[in-house]
Amino acid sequence: MSHPDSQWSASRPNRTPCRHTPASSCPAAPFLVPRAPGTLQDGSPMALSRILECMPHMAGLYERSGELKVLRGAMDATLGGHGEAVMIEGAPGIGKTSLLAEAKRLAVSAGFQVASARGSELESDFPFGVVRQLFEPLLARMEAEDRQRILSGTAGQAAIVLRRVVPERSLGGDFSILHGLYWLTADICERQPLAITVDDLHWSDIDSLKFLSYLMPRLEDIPACVVGTLRQFEVFARSNALDQIVTAPPSVLVFPSKLSAEASTALIVGEFVKSGAPEPEDEDFLSACWSATGGNPLLLKELTEALTTEHVEPTAAHIPQVYALGPRAVARRVAMWMRCLPQGCAPLARAIAVLGDGAELSHAAELAGLDRDDAMQAAKSLEHARILYTLPSDEMKPRMGFVHPLVRAAVYEEITPADCHRAHRTAASLLRDSQAEIERVALHLLRTLPSGDAETVTMLWSAARSALARGSPETAAKYLRRALAEPPTTADRLDLLFELGNAMRRVDSAAAVQYLTEAHEMARPSRQRVEIALALGDALLALRHSEEALAVWQQALAITAPEDTELLYQLNACILSIPLYEPGRPDLRQDILSRVPELRSPKPSESMGGRYLDCVIAGHDAVIGDPRAVVRAQRALHEDAPARPSDGQRSLSFGWLALISADRKEVLASLDAAVELAHRQGSVNDLTGALTYRAMAWLYRGNLDEAAADASAAVHAVETSSLGLRRLVLGPVQAEVQIEQGALSRAQATLEWTGVPDPAPLTGLMYYVLYSRSHLLRIQGRTTEAFNAALAAGQSFSAAGGDNPAIVPWRSEAALCLHLLGRDEEARALAEAELKLARYWSAPRALGRALRIAGTLSEGGADVSLLREAVTRLQGSPARLEYAKALADYGAALRRHGVRNQARTSLSNALDIAEARSAVPLVQQIQDELHAAGIRPRRHAVTGLQSLTPSEQRVYDLAVAGRTNREIAQQLFVTAKTVEAHLSNVYRKVGVTSRRQLGGLAEQADAAEEPE
């Protein structure tokens, strides 16, 4: 995807020479352009107070040496190739913006590019508003060739965010856009480090916060430094994306403190002297100024200006005036200037307060009822009074902003509610007529009162569709809710409710149910009613209201035309999924499953609905341990099948589960395709589901590093979204990986992260959590608790009809607990029962585990034969870690029976596999066994192509094919630093030092495989 060059170059003529600061930056921007002290860009005199604002390195940063040290350290680290982030948190006026301006000065002097943005209350509902402030100026300044190069790669996925007008039906999903924005950032800073500065993060739009949250853990791999400011102790209606940005590594959080009495005195004296007023000498007066403002730098400056303007003598006699002015210094100064300034100033200031920072002066003039000349004069007066400032912009279209959010608030709060409503409605009309983005028009419509205006509904609806196309369902939902309140005509209400309900399904299932229920009740029997029912049932199931979902779907099934096979497939897939997600009552389960035989079809599932149905039936077969599940899942997930993200992935996951449980290698190809599709077109929900099941597949194969990477990425996605249901599968998968790696405390934290209480309910997908909880408790030595958890997992799994030990091996886990409790006879009975079920399912991993545990618990010589069979069954399977465990237990049994040489071979081979997979507890177990046998472990040195992990193998293949590190990273959806790490491992393992040698190695390998 790429942009026409004209889209970016339209605003380039007459741009300010301020190289790195976008049109929406703060008033500290001018210091980026060298000029004579005390002058503006045009050479005119500049107020000393403005100089202090614009050049904070010269003055204004009282007692901020610690914060400046942190900023310099972050810049230095970024120059070294490892990006960092600094978040500056504090009260309004404490000096956050001055520190941010200093960060920009430091960055420019160090050779950084600078991308700046500022959040605002008005634009907090503008999708990707802060992102656009950051990147649009950077792209506009690029040469066309460079811009085309960047946007033709993976970064092009984010281009839709930056377009003025977007197609209503976009292939992009919210995750693919975040991923594209990351690569846009990486590509921009490839040749020159980048400083990203965002003032007032707390007012940033949710989509930009999600991007920054996505960027944070990847900063270490690119030369980009993020510096942001946010207010302290304020509650903002945001997701936890903001918390992730502020608290997660590599963020460093700093809290500028109030000024000391000494610094306060220095500031006050300096301000009085600059104004030409007598220098304050009365200590009580100076102390009162400090006390009245709480040492807040902004309030101190505003207080001293108010005092000097009103010619208040700095003596003890006037201390009451100090306390009267102190906390209201900003509002008092603004009100005072508004009374003194020429007549047109107040209307213009109010107009810009309504339009927001960055408002075009022409629009503000029209809203204020002023002609151009009067508006220009009023703007100059307001700028002289330090209420407004001129933003860097096209000289033909000057833009204005307030010098501080508190100043805007002081002006805006003086507008009456009725006038405010009228002003925002007029602003919306002005922007619509000037062909502004429809979302920018919608920002003002959100702040108007409902009046039954059809055009308002149309514009909000259009803005919602644009926001959805940009991957912003939260913002789209806000626009649609406001459109509902207008209200729309009866004819439009149904469609609007349906669209709103679908948007809310990606944000808030409970709210989605509300809107979809109303739409469902309004709709007459029709195909649309069935489509609404599909969405409503899905939202109900996400809330675990399974019986209500079933009722909705069954009603829809009754009115679906027999020839509409696609909808029939989808409805049946949904209905059959209920017992898997929410087992509920046995009679309900039996009623649903009684329909499975009639839905089995010998024909391949060519449509998406058919694939969904096949996957759900395969899921049921897999859960009960019926081997027919494998063939059905294979046909549903074959490589040539069409792919579509989002709505059907919940059904497809049952097909993945069936193939993972059967140790089928083709499942990884299907999961890889799903992950790739999510990166390129999909949502966070799509990606999380695909990563969760791919992590499970890697875990069962014993590839712990790959499983950990996928699980970690999925966890981060869940934490910045509302995908709570994913935790019930994802959490146990990650915990099992951590247990195998020996990270027991992390596994404990992960299981707590799932949110499942103890004791846990036995319905739904709780059996995954309960099984992992039992496994962890047993290793921690809490055997009785572990046994009870294993039994609970069995009860929960059985409620879903589960009997397949390849999915939940609760019997063998309970058997191990019973053995530790000295109840061996009961333990052997459970182990034998699991072995019988595993033989029927016949997948190597589950059967090998069942044989291994039955062998360790058996008496006499049966242990060796069972363990030998476990080794044989697992030897050629992909379940390499389970194979290592079988080898280890078999070697231990051989040692106990005195067969020392075979024990050495078995244990040594197990050690090689365990060490290669970083399975720390298993490595320790094997080393202890070797030590007990008096066998010295051979030195572990796994080399050659056969020693490469799956991730290393993929990097190797692409490197041999001539791909650069960046191209490999984009294709594999990892960072360039990750590719470098994998290549280093490849070089070490195969004994080369360059890519050229890799190519020669590949040729030798190909030649060795050719028949003679």
UniProtKB/TrEMBL annotation:
Pfam family, one: AAA_16
InterPro entries: AAA_16, P-loop_NTPase, Sig_transdc_resp-reg_C-effctor, TPR-like_helical_dom_sf, Tscrpt_reg_LuxR_C, WH-like_DNA-bd_sf
Protein name: LuxR family transcriptional regulator
Biased composition (Polar residues): 1-14
PROSITE patterns: HTH_LUXR_1, HTH_LUXR_2
Gene Ontology CC entries for this record: cytoplasm
Tree of life domain: Bacteria
Record region (Disordered): 1-24
Keyword set, alphabetical order: ATP-binding, Nucleotide-binding
Domain HTH luxR-type: 941-1006
Keyword Coiled coil: no
Gene3D superfamilies tied to this protein: Tetratricopeptide repeat domain (1.25.40.10), Winged helix-like DNA-binding domain superfamily/Winged helix DNA-binding domain (1.10.10.10)
